[in-house]
Amino acid sequence: MAVAMRAELYTPDSDLLDPNLYNAFLTNHGTIMIFFWVVPAAIGGFGNYLIPLMIGARDMAFPKLNAIAFWLVPPAGALLLGSFFFGGAQSGWTSYPPLSLITANTAQSMWILSIILVGTSSILGSVNFIITLFKMRVPSMRWDQMPLFCWAILATSILALFSTPVLAAGLTLLLFDINFGTSFFRPDAGGNVVVYQHLFWFYSHPAVYLMILPIFGIMSEVIPVHARKPIFGYKAIAYSSLAICIVGLFVWVHHMFTSGTPPWMRMFFTISTLIVAVPTGVKIFSWVATLWQGKIRYTSAMLFAIGLLGMFVLGGLSGVTLGTAPFDIHVHDTYYIVAHFHYVLFGGSVFGLYSGMYHWFPKITGRMYNETWGRVHFVLTFIGANLTFLPMHELGLQGMPRRVAMYDPQFTAINQLCTFGAILLGFSVVPFMINLIWSWMYGPKVGDNPWDALSLEWTTSSPPEIENWEVLPVLTHGPYAYGMNGRNGKGLNPSAPTSGEPVVEAK
Amino acid sequence: MQGSTIDEYQVSSTPEPSAEVTVAAHEEHPDYRVLGLIVFLASESLMFGGMFASYLIYRGVSATWPPEGTEVELLLPTINTIILVSSSFVIHKGDVAIKKNNLSGMRLWYIITAVMGVIFLGGQVYEYLTLGYGLTTNVFSNCFYLMTGFHGLHVTIGVLLILGVLWRSRRPGHYGETKHVGIEMAEIYWHFVDIIWIILFTLLYILTLF
């Protein structure tokens, strides 16, 4: 879908896709990627799989609730795809009224219902995570011995818990406006469209942290394991997750600087937005400090993690510029925004997901993936992503608006560059899929702990058995005590292989 | 997971076993459902919070609130409020009863609560029918019907929960002095519905007087 859109943008006129279809594509590209890929994969997938393993629980606190949360997603997806038969929702993933009130009503309603279902699923999941993390750690694990991924999921859950229902409220009002003749967001009948924007961004700004916080957690796991060093600043990283979670609830108006917000509000939200950069910077520097003088293994997981560092810093910097009201007003709704959020969402979230998939692949399947093809995948993705998204900054600064199928001919050259990048990116998925499927079936078998990692999930068998452990493990060291014993600083296991290569058993 | 084949007590071979003897195998981890419900309700209250906030914004930007022709009546809702608020005390009597192992007492108090809930809903429907305006009249009536309707939905769910508790209490031994999580959860939910109503009543009725 994304590639089709870029192909359309290869030329200034709309000659490949019908503009309406283009609108539907861009809406659903955003929606699917956010609500059906990054959020479920990062929180639902990695979260539910790893949290019990990392804290030494046999299962989540509410397994049945979890099943409900999971099975809410397929019908939601079906609703979303079904909406294409009714023209597809066309008002962007933000669905601002009045546009969402006048285009493709049936499809828009299906879109709303679909999002409400996914939202319910994520609320139920969050309840589960919070109770599990608070109550079901193995008794020997103190809070400050919990892997950082768990801290990240805790922060994520709190965020989802408090922001998602507000989105549900906003969407319900929108649904009533479309179908039952109310006028919450119809200015001609006394309604107010800005109210929707507030409700929407109260959720959707935290949603971007929902998408990145678990990824930060994955980063904090992958980097120390593959750099063979204790994580730098454990507490700083843990608390900065919570700080992002709390400050993240108070920044939403920076999406609305051009919606007639009064100056004091702009000032307040500019400042709060810039404050978010502080805990994020704490994390970035901690990871860099962890890498510093580490014994780095350039596995695919690590390559993606390092790629993420680079990409995310760039996305974060453009985020800081955008958080400043005067600059934001200049580039509002241009490709600069598109460039920014693709750097953080693709360069951040998607890179992190790839990294996590490579890192935990041996645990999930009990087999090792093919390292060479993993690296090919990384190189293709990295070049493709930068080729696609870097030129978009320039497009935005020159004033090309986002979300339109046709554009001024002066932007042609840069757009063609982006399209080449997108095609490369499309191809980059091929080695990834083939590698994972092939390795799952035929890859060499690995032991329980191919990376010599220390967190609890590596103490059980690969793949983990039902109920995770036959005998619950006992913590004798922290999750990141590489090269030292948590207690007295002696070498943990002198006979452990130090070659830096993953341990692969013969077939 | 009930019915699992894993032994209940398994002490791992550890260098320092003392702390780990109490490791709980799955089937005996304590019941966290009450805690889960409370966390869920915290989230749920934010959904109402979103609606309250929107309502206050609409109220803030309009000159006359509520707009002419959509005044609310006060007598019936006030009676309704008293019924709903006092039902919270009634349901608590039921909870106290079961903790003293008094099953029939619990049933009696819960039946009274359910009846009070149904009276509240009836009053609500009667109010809808007699008001001179409908859902689509203006923004105030939009808010009024949506918020009270959404709350009414929660009352209905609460009544169903109570009926579910009553249905299950037929089986002897299903609830008892130490086994009353379901009863407690229904009670907490009912209190939640009650608190939301108090806020709603303040916003939609009392604040319109000023």
Topology:
The complex is a heterodimer of chains A (507) and B (210).
Chain A: H1 2-8, H2 19-55, H3 63-82, H4 99-102, H5 105-135, H6 148-179, H7 193-227, H8 234-248, H9 263-291, H10 300-323, H11 325-331, H12 335-365, H13 371-398, H14 412-442
Chain B: H1 33-61, H2 75-99, H3 103-130, H4 139-168, H5 181-204
Helix pairs in contact in B: 1-4, 1-5, 2-3, 2-5, 3-4, 4-5
Describe this protein's structure.
The complex is a heterodimer of chains A (507) and B (210). With 507 residues, chain A is mostly helical. Helices cover 65% and strands 0% of the residues of chain A. Chain B is mainly α. Chain B has one domain (31-209): Four Helix Bundle (Hemerythrin (Met), subunit A), CATH 1.20.120. In chain B, helix 2 (75-99) packs antiparallel against helix 3 (103-130), helix 3 (103-130) runs antiparallel to helix 4 and helix 4 (139-168) packs antiparallel against helix 5 (181-204). Chain B is elongated. In chain B, 30% of the residues are buried. Mean pLDDT of chain B is 80; it is low at 1-27. Classes of the chains: A mainly alpha (507), B mainly alpha (210). Chains A and B meet through helix 5, helix 6 and helix 7 of A and helix 1 and helix 4 of B.
Assigned CATH class of chain B: Mainly Alpha
Radius of gyration of chain B: 23 Å
Largest sheet properties of chain A? none
CATH architecture of chain B: Up-down Bundle
The SSE string of chain B, one letter per element, is HHHHH
> What is the rounded distance between the termini of chain A?
40 Å
Please tell me the total number of domains of chain B: 1
Oligomer state equals: heterodimer
Structure summary, number of beta strands of chain A: 0
Biggest interchain interface, per-side counts: A-B, 52 and 50 residues
What Rg of chain A is obtained from the alpha carbons, in whole angstroms?
Answer: 23 Å
Structural class of chain B: mainly alpha
- Any idea of the CATH topology of chain B? Four Helix Bundle (Hemerythrin (Met), subunit A)
The CATH superfamily of chain B is known as Cytochrome c oxidase, subunit III, four-helix bundle
The percentage of residues in β strands of chain A lies in: under 5%
In DSSP terms, counting alpha (H) and pi (I) runs of 4 or more, how many helices of chain B?
5
Average pLDDT level of chain B: 80
Average per-residue pLDDT of chain A, rounded, comes to: 81
Please report the number of helical segments of chain A: 14
Roughly how much helix do the residues of chain B carry, as a percent range? 55-70%
* Proportion of residues in β-strands of chain B: under 5%
